[in-house]
Specification:
- With 257 residues, the protein is mainly alpha-helical.
- The chain has 2 domains: 201 residues, Transposase IS200-like (Alpha-Beta Plaits, 2-Layer Sandwich), CATH 3.30.70.1290; 51 residues.
- The chain has 7 helices and 5 strands.
- The protein is globular and about 80 Å long.
Length: 257
């Protein structure tokens, strides 16, 4: 994802998919300590910053998470605080220095509940797509256990699409497990991926027409901001030139006197 201003990508009520990797793709999340620490930080601050979390998957060197935010500022503040606390604690625990979270995290927004469902399933299946080829039921740190088996998880809020999977909790869990198993059985033929790989389009997940419309709107705002910045810079430069010119005139007049 290009580094577009977060204020142009996230807005009030946005449904987001956040991903970030450890610096240099190091295995800084491999330990139980690191995963438990990040989970506890999410749990501690989600209420403070009015963040609703629908799903998560903590891998050994990267994180996936979906949710909804109340505003762009609260969204940015939430991840600044959580990732900042996590980085300091990891460096202290492992006696290391330097960056922990690599670059700027990605945060594409989604259009519909169907898109959210696709992303949550994609996230929960992450362990299956690693070189270790682990079934999601054998990976502790994800939302799979909550949606597939009803395991209590204070971090999560059930999204509307999940509630609509059945009339009872048992029905919903069965349906979710069947969806996962069907994808695992067919993934070698039709791999599921919620993203368009085109540069820039990873900012949005949804119907191709909606994604294209959002991308065009984003580019228009980016061009407008760039023009505003160039105009301010030009005005500042012209003002500086005028001040220098006035100073030269004043000095010349003084010398003449």
């Amino acid at each position: 994802m290009a580094n577009y201003p977060r204020s142009l990508l996230v807005f009030e009520g946005s449904v987001f998919h956040v991903t970030w990797q450890c610096h240099n793709k190091d295995w800084l999340l491999k330990s139980e300590f690191a995963k438990a620490l990040y989970y506890e930080l999410l749990l501690k601050y989600k209420m403070v910053y009015d963040i609703i979390i629908f799903s998560y998957c903590l891998m050994d060197n990267h994180v996936h998470m979906t949710g909804r935010c109340a505003s762009q500022k609260l969204f940015s503040d939430f991840f600044r605080v959580v990732n900042g606390c996590f980085s300091r604690s990891i460096n202290k625990h492992f006696c290391r220095r330097g960056q922990v979270v690599m670059d700027r995290f990605k945060s594409p927004t989604m259009e519909t509940d169907d898109d959210l469902m696709s992303v949550i399933i994609y996230n929960d299946l992450n362990p299956k797509r690693t070189t270790n080829n682990i079934h999601p039921k054998n990976h502790k740190w994800s939302s799979y256990h909550h949606y597939a088996f009803g395991q209590e998880d204070p971090l999560l809020t059930d999204p509307e699409f999940y509630i609509g999977l059945g009339n009872t909790a048992h029905d919903r869990q069965n349906k979710y497990r069947l969806m996962i198993e069907e994808i695992i059985a067919n993934d070698h033929r039709t791999p599921i991926c919620p993203y368009r790989k085109d540069d820039g389009y990873i900012c949005f997940i949804g119907n191709p027409l909606w994604v294209q419309t959002c991308h065009e709107r984003l580019m228009k705002k980016v061009r407008l901001r760039r023009k505003e910045w160039q105009d301010r810079h030009r005005q500042f430069f012209e003002l500086g030139k005028n001040k220098i010119g006035n100073n030269v005139v004043t000095v010349s007049a003084t010398v003449s006197i």
